[in-house]
Amino acid sequence: MPAWLILDPTFTKLIKHIPMSRLPGYNKKSFSILDLSEEEIEERFRHRLEGLKNEIFAKGLPLTYQDERCSTPDFFIREYEDGRTFLAILDRDKLEFDSIRRLDN
Fold first, then answer.
1. Is residue 77 within 8 Å of 64, Cβ to Cβ?
2. Where are the domains of the chain?
3. Contacts (Cβ under 8 Å, ≥6 apart) of 78
4. Dist. CA 84–CA 102, nearest whole Å
5. Alpha carbon distance 8, 75 (integer Å)
6. By C-alpha distance, which of 76, 48, 82 is closest to 64?
7. What are the pLDDT tens digits along the chain (105 aa)?
């Protein structure tokens, strides 16, 4: 299960057993993410993330994020449109990134 999809297990079990039509304020025209399967949610998020990624690259900016390779809160991954990927550290005084090493080799 993707990390962003982890919910409280008790809440998840309860929600799976309540039909949407029994929830207050429900009507057929309203949409809830809870109506979707895990695969549908993941696909919708993946599609939206690809769109955001393209918007960032269209502006000439690198995609900047943190993942398991970032061992401290100051470390970030900087991914460029041409495929180059760097581990960078944020200089909080200057608000600039300094590349530490290239990761895509």
1. yes
2. 7-26+35-60, 62-105
3. 62, 63, 64, 85, 86, 87, 88, 97, 99
4. 7
5. 29
6. 76
7. 444 444 444 444 444 555 656 655 556 566 677 778 888 888 888 888 888 888 899 999 999 989 899 999 999 999 999 999 999 999 888 888 988 899 976
